[in-house]
């Protein structure tokens, strides 16, 4: 059988006039291989070339488009030819503009005296009027001049050797030839308020008005979100069609003594969430649930109760945490809670694993007394660990429930790897990083969401202050005062050692010595991710026992560290952290009955940097902070492409497209319902 011809948009870009081997290689560096790739190459901005500014009317600081003739140009070199500046002078009749390129001597090859040149940039000086490194195009006479001038022109991301003007003309020719081949991806859906996909692509590249570009973006973003929602909803439907839920609802034989021994009553929110989880664990399909709860809301106790339901039902449970510190803390907590019930708890990290065999016989006896015999008389076990749980040689028999703590620290593939160790076990993923709704509907769209929206009673208030570096002497006075009163403090820096740093950013290894002097006679410890596990354990044990008054650390303490007596946190170079991360760090204090104080020391040099930190000073509501972080920094912090398994979005904006995501979710459900 001869090969079937490729669909028009799947044809290589080399079918277009002017695209030979060298140009195809340049386009490939921009990930443009086919006609479809070219039509989806999104302009990074637009220039309204219907209105040029006269050079004489420009003011310092203006960003403007001008058009003039090259009246002079030259290249100057110094420092034995290692430094250079190329300069050309444009005249438009009203005045002269100097355009300069530093250390780019090859620029002189692109221009000649007498060229008609378009330049776009920011005026850095008026004496004489000067632009540094403006974007330029030589205006050429010919049939395609209307593509580049007297219109709103797209400006594309480029690669070395690829001229803006050439790429714009290529897109123009590709649209003329292939626009009619752009099909509607969802012919069954009515989208009366948006252009067709073909029309949207035309408006994206060559809009009549600037407002058209946003209409086009919304249409193309909606297509992306519908495709994403279809994949998410199909995955969930396929799971429910082929997998039966393991019977893990439990019978309360372990739960009742556990709750009675806690010493406190669950909050209403914890109780509500546990009812939802029990219904899932006893339901016909494997549970796939995301548990969101702000720092300190009691997610660990909820996870313990969910684990007990599966353990009561004769199944093993795996709990995976992102760091050894957090895994070991979970191991200590769960051992304290579960061993009196006869439930073995095993730890498995890169550097440590406990031997559960020695405790098994005793555990069988205890569990039999409390809960009745497990199948085959093997005690159901809780396995706590890090990525070490994923190792190929580690077997998890009778796996009923997988709990993943701080889900955003793991990739989707790691989540799936652990789940595949069993036969469709139930899955509970937990996060204390509140997830804005757009991310919740995309990144976690196949999970049911439960929220613990209530903090336990008896917690002190957390007050947050933003200070500049010149206030540090007063900050250390305040810290000494709190340490003298018996409280403890965390002092956080962005990096481990000076070699890791940008200029002006502090590091723990250097700062700890200074702070041992500053905070004397109080003992100061050091904790960072490069220390050996035994060292970290020893430091944390000293801090928990209040034998260390202050802990100088990196963000390794961001998750899970729980020392109720620690009521002060100082974060230096706070401007270098994301809001969600700062909120997580702040969650390490205020976990006891005393009021707590978080002091953000920052060189907030711009209004935007100050605005970010002020959000933290104004609220402790994690959802408000996460929304602000998403708007100010974009989804990168919460979403790393590799971690999330999310496809890259060319047009969708996870910081601002909630309405489009929700619409796509509804439309995808319609498509699936109609087959």
Key traits:
single chain, 675 residues, alpha/beta, DNA polymerase, domain 1, OB fold (Dihydrolipoamide Acetyltransferase, E2P), 5 domains, seven-stranded parallel β-sheet, six-stranded parallel β-sheet, 22 helices, 19% strand, globular
The Rg value, from CA coordinates, equals 31 Å
- In total, the number of domains comes to 5
Q: Per DSSP, what share of the residues sits in E-state strands of 2 or more residues?
A: 15-25%
> What would CATH call the homologous superfamily of the largest domain?
P-loop containing nucleotide triphosphate hydrolases
Task: Provide a descriptive summary of the structure in words.
The chain has 675 residues and is an alpha/beta fold. The chain folds into 5 domains: 1-44 and 161-182, Orthogonal Bundle (DNA polymerase, domain 1), CATH 1.10.150; 45-155, OB fold (Dihydrolipoamide Acetyltransferase, E2P), CATH 2.40.50.140; 189-242 and 656-675, no CATH class; 255-452, 3-Layer(aba) Sandwich (Rossmann fold); 462-639, Rossmann fold (3-Layer(aba) Sandwich), CATH 3.40.50. It is 37% helix and 19% strand. The chain has 22 helices and 21 strands. It has a 7-stranded parallel β-sheet with strand order 11-12-10-13-14-9-15, sandwiched between helices. Strands 16-21-20-17-19-18 form a 6-stranded parallel β-sheet, with helices on both faces. The chain has a 5-stranded mixed β-barrel with strand order 2-3-4-6-5. β13 (399-404), α12 (412-419) and β14 (426-431) form a beta-alpha-beta unit. It starts with 20 loop residues before the first helix and ends with a helix.
């Amino acid at each position: 059988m001869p090969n079937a011809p490729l669909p028009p948009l799947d044809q290589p870009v080399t079918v277009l006039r002017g695209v030979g081997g060298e140009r195809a290689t340049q386009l490939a560096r921009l990930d443009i291989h086919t006609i479809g790739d070219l039509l989806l190459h999104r302009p990074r901005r637009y220039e309204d070339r219907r209105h040029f500014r006269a050079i004489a009317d420009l003011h310092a600081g203006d960003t403007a488009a001008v058009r003039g003739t090259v009246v002079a140009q030259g290249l100057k070199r110094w420092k034995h030819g290692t430094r250079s500046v190329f300069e050309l002078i444009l005249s438009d009749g009203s005045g002269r503009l100097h355009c300069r390129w530093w250390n780019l001597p090859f620029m002189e090859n692109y221009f000649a005296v007498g060229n008609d040149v378009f330049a776009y940039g920011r005026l850095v000086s008026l004496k004489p009027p000067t632009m540094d490194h403006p974007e330029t195009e030589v205006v050429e006479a010919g049939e395609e001049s209307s593509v580049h001038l007297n219109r709103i022109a797209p400006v594309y991301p480029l690669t070395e050797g690829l001229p803006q003007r050439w790429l714009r003309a290529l897109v123009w020719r590709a649209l003329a030839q292939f626009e009619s081949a752009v099909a509607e991806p969802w012919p069954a859906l009515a989208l009366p308020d948006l252009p067709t996909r073909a029309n949207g692509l035309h408006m994206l590249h060559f809009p009549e008005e600037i407002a058209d570009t946003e209409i086009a973006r919304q249409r193309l973003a909606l297509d992306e979100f519908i495709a994403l929602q279809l994949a998410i909803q199909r995955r969930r439907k396929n799971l429910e069609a082929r997998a039966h839920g393991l019977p893990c609802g439990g019978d309360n034989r372990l739960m009742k003594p556990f709750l009675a021994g806690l010493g406190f009553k669950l909050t209403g929110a914890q109780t509500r969430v546990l009812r939802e989880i029990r219904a899932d664990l006893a339901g016909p399909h494997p549970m796939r649930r995301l548990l969101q709860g702000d720092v300190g809301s009691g997610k660990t106790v909820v996870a313990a109760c969910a684990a007990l339901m599966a353990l009561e039902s004769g199944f093993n449970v795996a709990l995976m945490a992102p760091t050894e510190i957090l895994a070991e803390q979970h191991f200590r907590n769960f051992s304290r809670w579960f061993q009196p019930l006869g439930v073995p708890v095993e730890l498995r990290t890169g550097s440590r694993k406990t031997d559960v065999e020695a405790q098994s016989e005793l555990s069988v006896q205890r569990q039999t007394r409390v809960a009745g015999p497990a199948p085959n008389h093997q005690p159901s076990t809780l396995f706590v660990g890090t990525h070490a749980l994923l190792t190929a040689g580690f077997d998890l028999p009778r796996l009923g429930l997988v709990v993943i703590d701080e889900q955003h620290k793991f990739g989707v593939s790691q989540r799936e790897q652990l789940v595949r160790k069993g036969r469709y076990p139930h899955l509970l993923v937990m996060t204390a990083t509140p997830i804005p709704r757009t991310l919740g509907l995309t990144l976690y769209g196949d999970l049911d969401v439960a929220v613990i929206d209530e903090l336990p009673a008896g917690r002190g208030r957390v007050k947050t202050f933003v200070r500049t570096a010149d206030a540090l002497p007063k900050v250390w006075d305040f810290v000494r005062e709190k340490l003298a009163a018996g409280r403890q403090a965390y002092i956080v820096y962005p990096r481990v050692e000076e070699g890791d740093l940008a200029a002006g950013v502090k590091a723990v290894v250097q700062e700890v010595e200074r702070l041992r002097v500053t905070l004397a006679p109080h003992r100061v410890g050091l904790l960072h991710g490069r220390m050996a596990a035994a060292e970290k354990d020893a430091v944390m044990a000293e801090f928990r026992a209040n034998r260390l008054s202050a802990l100088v650390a990196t963000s390794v303490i961001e998750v899970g560290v729980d020392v109720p007596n620690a009521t002060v946190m100082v974060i230096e170079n706070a401007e270098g952290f994301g809001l969600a991360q700062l909120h997580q760090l702040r969650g390490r204090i205020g976990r006891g009955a005393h009021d707590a104080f978080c002091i953000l020391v920052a060189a907030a040099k711009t209004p935007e940097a100050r605005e970010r930190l002020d959000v933290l000073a104004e609220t402790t509501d994690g959802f408000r902070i996460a929304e602000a972080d998403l708007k100010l920094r974009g989804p990168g912090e919460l979403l790393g492409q590799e971690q999330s398994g999310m496809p890259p979005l060319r047009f969708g904006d996870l910081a601002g497209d909630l309405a489009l995501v929700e619409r796509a979710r509804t439309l995808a459900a319609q498509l699936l319902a109609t087959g």
